[in-house]
Design brief:
With 87 residues, the protein is mainly alpha-helical. The chain contains 4 helices and no strands. It has helices at residues 6-16, 19-41, 44-61, 71-86. The radius of gyration is 13 Å and the shape is elongated.
C-alpha cells in the first residue's frame, strides 16, 4: 500500500474499497477519536462505543467527503457531535 496522507488513503478506500487503507486511517486516528470521546463522556465504555460509531460514519461517508481541512479536524468534530448525541 503506497498512499501515506489521509486524503489519499480516504480516496483509496472510497474508490477501491481498500480495507488496508481504512485500517491505516483507523490506526492513525483512533487515539484522537477515543480521547475526545472519553473527554466528552468521562466513561471508557461509552468512549469505545462512540469511537466505533465515528469510524462507521467515516466508512459510510468516505466517498462523499471533500476535506478542505485535515481529516483529524473532521474526526474531532464528528466525535464531539456523536458524543453529544450519545449523552
Amino acid at each position: 500500500m503506497e498512499p501515506t496522507d489521509d486524503s489519499a488513503l480516504l480516496r483509496q478506500y472510497a474508490e477501491d474499497n481498500s480495507d488496508e487503507a481504512f485500517a491505516a486511517l483507523v490506526t492513525r486516528h483512533i487515539s484522537l477519536v477515543y480521547s475526545v470521546a472519553l473527554r466528552q463522556t468521562g466513561n471508557p465504555h461509552a468512549a469505545e462505543e462512540i469511537t466505533q460509531a465515528v469510524f462507521i460514519i467515516l466508512a459510510k461517508k468516505a466517498a462523499s467527503l471533500r476535506l478542505e481541512n485535515a481529516l483529524s479536524s473532521w474526526l474531532f468534530r464528528t466525535t464531539q457531535l456523536t458524543a453529544s448525541n450519545f449523552i
